[in-house]
Structure prediction request, 661 residues.
Amino acid sequence: MTEASATVMDLPPLDDLLRSLQQPRLVFFPIRHHSPACAWHIQQWIKAERPAAILIEAPADATELIPLLLHPETETPVALYATYVDHDGHLALPQADVTTSVTQAPWPQAERTEPQRFGGYYPFCDYSPELVALRAGAAVGAQLQFIDLPYPQKVLATHLQANPEAALRLRALQEEHHLQHSDYLAALAQKTGCRDFNELWDHLFEAHCQEASTAEFIRQMATYCYLTRQESDPETLDAEGTLAREAAMAQAITTALREVDGKILVVTGGFHTVVLPSLVESPPAAPFVPKLSRESAQTTVMRYSFEQLDALNGYASGMPAPAYYQQLWQHMTQNMAQSGQEALNQTACEVLIQLRALTRNQKPLVPLSVADEIAAVEQAQRLARFRGHPGPTREDLLDAVRSCFVKGAMDGEGVMLMAAVARSLRGDRIGNLPAHAGVPPLVEDFRRLAQFFRLKLDTSTPKSLALDIYRKEKHRQLSRFFHSLAFANVPFARFTKGPDFVLGKKLNQIQEHWDYRWQPQTESTLIEQSLYGSTVAEVTLYHLHQQIASLADEGEGRSAIAAVRLLMAACRMGLQDQTAHLLDLIAVHAAADPSVVSLAQALGQLLLLWQSREPLAAQSLETVPQLAIAAYQRLCYLLPHLADCPLEESSPVLGALNGVW
Prediction:
């Protein structure tokens, strides 16, 4: 543990902390990300106090994107998307070369042909406290600033030596796992009769948010987070970069106190808020900032969706059921004099009306009647009164649905109905950005290619194409484009029928048939994939290299057919010039593969590739016939051993041999 770690974890007495949150010039506002209750109180406070500056937990280098977030044409949900590619080799430095600090750690030295890559999201919706603070702050003329560590520094502040590959996944930058896995909060949920962290949150904060004053709400939130922070292990917080982030936020607050004339509001996750006042009072050392090349990092604003935002869909810091909370937020803000009870009741009624309509339009759901709907409204209100809520919360509503809408068994009809309810409460809303919003080079390359092939991107209506890959060169190029996107898991084009050279099916057909449709997920996925390259070809090549490397990891290191199938896929994508390593790999595997089935299938695929070298543009792969001969010789060598073949394996072996001879 570093000296800074120990200092951060010496929490002051709770009473001292609560007094320090609301100072004459400095107010700390603890939040839960995407909480309508937190957003409502922040909006109330800003309108009443009109601060000179608002400092918000988000990557500091994204401050320049605030005007885009506030643009009238920006429709939520949207997200900041940050990437870092270690082109400068900071993660491969030997331990002896690394200066010890709270933001650095001994990185494992590894031999890599590709730099390590990282990506993360910072989403916003209409009821995100951070976005509400930006909008309300802009309305009163406040200076707006993000104060968290820039994403590259956040990555470099994280100790990856225990599990280096864990950081390669895309991550949410607002993770609340400390709160969600708190033993204290679990015990509190059990004590109050709540089933999980989210129900406890609604019970304590969302249901009663408009009953408490903003000052009291801040105290309640801080107490809630303070008791959770006491459980946290300082070494864990140091290893995951939390302490470095808090040091950076404290430095930014200290700077603002010197430079801003007037009151300052600090909006951060409650887990961080409870230590920031003491850090501002005794600022830690400034975090180490390594030198980064320009191409190593980028931050952009991207469209997001309620599906991506849904906490129940895997988003680590989201509230569940974003469409439900969007409706609740609208009722809370449409009439600021409206009571919390009215907002909760109106939201519950609207949701139940929508669910009734849903059952009438979706089969095999049993249609519900008006009587069912009335019964559910009454049940939700009775449950709310029983649990001490001014109106039905989300769980009150769901319990009413279970008791009034499910006619059969809960593990039968109930499963289908509740799945439909979850989709309805999640919603399908997708954000939008102004036309002038910049996009990464990968998105520009996709649009350029789509324009070249005259593909329709101005509508989400599905389109169908038939590609004559034997006779038309441009059709072959479009086929490679579609196959490349599919290989990189970009949702745009879907192969429906035609010759499949990888599986060796329907080879008598001369046309490929595709359905394609632009959708917002197409663009957001491309932005995610920009982590791996600036063009579609670069991204596809990266994924190809990753699959080649994974052959050994998946126990297929000597599988000839696995390597040959990758070769076929590469040819379908137009990457023939990048297959030299694959051809060498096939030669090695063909000489060592112990499986008759694998060798027979590989031999068949190699012969097919050579026979179909014109549509696959494989004429330059001159070693394919020699590889086929090597596979055939290895297969002949293994034939005498088939006498010992187990009976249960005889059928696939004979089938594979029959495909060759």
Remarks:
- Residues 29 and 267 are 5 Å apart (CA to CA).
